[in-house]
Amino acid sequence: MYNSRKKPQDDIPEEITSIWACTSEDCKGWMRDNFVFSSEPTCVQCNSPMVKSERKLAVLVNTSPSQSKK
Predict the structure, then answer these.
(1) pLDDT score of 27
(2) Which InterPro entries did the record assign (predicted)?
């Protein structure tokens, strides 16, 4: 019998999260606001400007020392 250690999707808490979304219609790039390294990022996939937005995403905590100073 196979026993998976992964939690079922129902147990993962979600919340409305600030993100940066690519402005290009052909690109689906986005990143969480707390993982961004600049105040106005550009898309790493197509180099287009990005705009602030929100999405319902799984809760993640950024423990990077450089990001905790914000």
Answers:
(1) 96
(2) YdjO
The CA-CA-CA angle for residues 28, 37, 64, to 5°, reads 110
Q: 4-39 pLDDT, tens per residue?
A: 676 666 678 899 999 999 999 999 999 999 888 889
Longest C-alpha distance within the chain, in Å?
50
Angular region, 26: left φ>0, alpha ψ -120 to 50, beta rest: alpha
Whole-structure pTM value: 0.72
